[in-house]
Amino acid sequence: MDEKDRILLHLLEENCRTPLSELAVLAEVSEQDAKDRIGRLEAAGAIRRYGAVVDWERAGDGNVAAVIELKVSPERDFGYDRIAERITRFPQVRSLRLMTGIYDLQLLVTGPSMHEIARFVSEQIAPMDRIRETATHIIMKTYKENGTTFAEREEVERLPYSF
Amino acid sequence: MRNFVSARARAIPPSGIRRFFDIAQTMEDVISLGVGEPDFVTPWCVCEASIYSIEQGSTAYTSNKGTPQLRGAISRYLDTRFGTRYDAEEEIVVTCGVSEAADIAIRAVVDPGDEVLVAEPSYVSYTPCVSLAGGTPVTVPCRAADEFRLTADALAERITPRTKVLIANFPNNPTGGVMQEADWRGIADLLVDHDLLLISDEVYAELTYDGDHFSPARLPELRDRTITLNGFSKAFAMTGWRIGYLCAPPAITAAALKIHQYVALCAPVMGQIAAYEALRIGEAEKDAMVREYRLRRNLFVDGLNKLGLACHVPKGAFYAFPSVESTGMTDTEFAESLLREQHVAVVPGSVLGPSGAGHVRCAYAVSRDNLKEALSRMGAFLDSVK
Question: Under CATH, which architecture does the B7-42+284-385 domain have?
Answer without folding.
Answer: Alpha-Beta Complex (3.90)
